[in-house]
């Protein structure tokens, strides 16, 4: 685009940015689900949306404790597997909720996905040597 008119270059730059943003949104199941809720006019999912699920909160707390007490690489891989499996399970459940047009259920599941996204970020931080 270097030989195009400046107006065309500007137009291309703007659209390229939008396309990249759209791609990143659709690439991740959590951001994709949040975007679908937004398109449907449902307020965004909050982590507080699953506060009433005591078993789920206990599961999150246990994983957080394991991350805090992490001592070996084996434990890291074990926790990573648990998080990945749970994220895949939640992704399937969110997909099914959207297919049933059950937006409130999708919202609750996306709130749970946010917890696991946070755990994944903590795990990645543990992997990077200080």
From TrEMBL:
GO terms for molecular function: ATPase activator activity; protein-folding chaperone binding. Residues 52-124 form the Co-chaperone HscB C-terminal oligomerisation domain. SUPFAM superfamilies: HSC20 (HSCB), C-terminal oligomerisation domain. InterPro entries: HscB, HscB_C_sf, HscB_oligo_C, J_dom_sf. It comes from the Eukaryota. Keywords: Chaperone, Cytoplasm, Mitochondrion. The keyword Transmembrane does not apply. One of its GO terms (biological process) is [2Fe-2S] cluster assembly. GO terms for cellular component: mitochondrion. It is found in: Cytoplasm; Mitochondrion. Pfam families: HSCB_C (PF07743). Belongs to the HscB family. This is HSC20 protein. The gene is Hscb.
